[in-house]
Amino acid sequence: MNMTADVIIVGGAVMGSSVAWWLTRMQPGLDVLVLERDPSFAQASTALSVASIRQQFTTDVNVKISRFGIDFIRHFDERLGGTGGVSSLGLKENGYLFLSSTIDGAAALAEVAAMQRANGAATALWDADQVKARFPWLETGDLTAATFGARDEGWFDNMGLMAGFRTAAKAQGVRFLTARACGLRMSGGRITEVEIETKDGGRALVSGSSVVNAAGTRAAEVLRWAGLDLAVEPRKRTVFVVDAPNARHPDAPLLIDAGFYLRPEHGHWITATVPQDDGPCDPNDFEPDLHLFEDVIWEQLYARAPGFDAVKVVRHWVGHYAYNTLDQNAILGPHPHLPNLFLCNGFSGHGLQQAPAVGRGLAEHILTGDWQSLDLSDLSVARMIEGRPFLERAIV
Ligand SMILES: Cc1cc2nc3c(=O)[nH]c(=O)nc-3n(C[C@H](O)[C@H](O)[C@H](O)COP(=O)(O)OP(=O)(O)OC[C@H]3O[C@@H](n4cnc5c(N)ncnc54)[C@H](O)[C@@H]3O)c2cc1C
Predict the structure, then answer these.
(1) Is residue 395 part of a domain?
(2) pLDDT (tens digit, 9 = 90+) per residue, 338-378?
(3) Which residues pair with 263 in a beta bridge?
């Protein structure tokens, strides 16, 4: 049976749900249909995220996105008008600590910290002694500088964020359908229909005025149906949960060191690194790179914090970044060659925290034809087509 909707959203995890909620909040009665191939979200980046938010980005627009995000996350229930069924996202505001041990790195930290503060962030620029005074369990002898965000940075409930948007969107009339989008039909330079396969294997067409690509790591596949390219690919990240009985620091920040990141989690620690041979992976490949903890992370971790002398990996998981190979930044807005296809892609490992602001921005663009509350044009599709990188340097 064929269907119609005003807006069809491909992908129903955090981004798809946020866009759907914002659209129907701004225009009650708008007919929004969200297509989700796997409602267990077992492979969605949203479910496999480390679920943290920071203000410490190197581009002005990403700081502004996080300024909005932290307020929304902190007051989630209220912002959803009490309709999300999630009373709190349990924000744990321990801050992020970025470390540098080079002269150039120190200068770069100082420069971006000033930009972040100008946007309202609380980023403090520290020397090694200040790091030691606040976190005495860290080795600081090699440090040239550090930046610490004492407020508005930490971690929160990822599934709560998605579930809240979803529930609140349903309450506003959004329809969520378990179906895989599998093709696009076009006429006159616009998408007219999305081909879908339903869970019982049936095929159908959905016609609509606008289509949003919120397909995460599979975003490029959606563009290929229209004969277009998108420089977004799945990149594997293996996350380790470790127990370190001699390192119990529940007030620890999310530490970003040269070769790994680390944060506390319920008496244990979460840590991960970027593999040296980082490259695209199959979207179905969730085989962990187990050697990374022993071969890459542990030695650096121990050098930074001797309390990690005894460690045991108690758990691990694998998630995929939807990695933008041009500039590791989001790709947002209408596609210049197909103006009723809106992209919401390429978040490269920092999309969860961006869901509130990006959802609002895309909804405004779809409804009014331009960015409104926040100018997101730096993240436009045009730069991808023109090969003009808008680089986010603080990628972890
Ligand atoms: C290990 C890891 C750590 C991370 N840490 C952080 C962090 O600390 N902070 C942060 O902000 N971000 C983090 N991220 C990134 C963040 O999780 C993602 O950017 C964000 O969740 C992206 O949401 P999304 O909705 O775009 O994509 P996804 O969550 O991947 O959802 C895409 C959805 O689209 C569906 N889909 C795909 N193709 C189709 C189709 N053809 N038809 C129908 N449905 C389809 C999929 O089933 C999926 O549910 C991390 C990611 C990973 C993997």
Answers:
(1) no
(2) 999 999 999 999 999 999 999 999 999 999 999 999 999 99
(3) 270
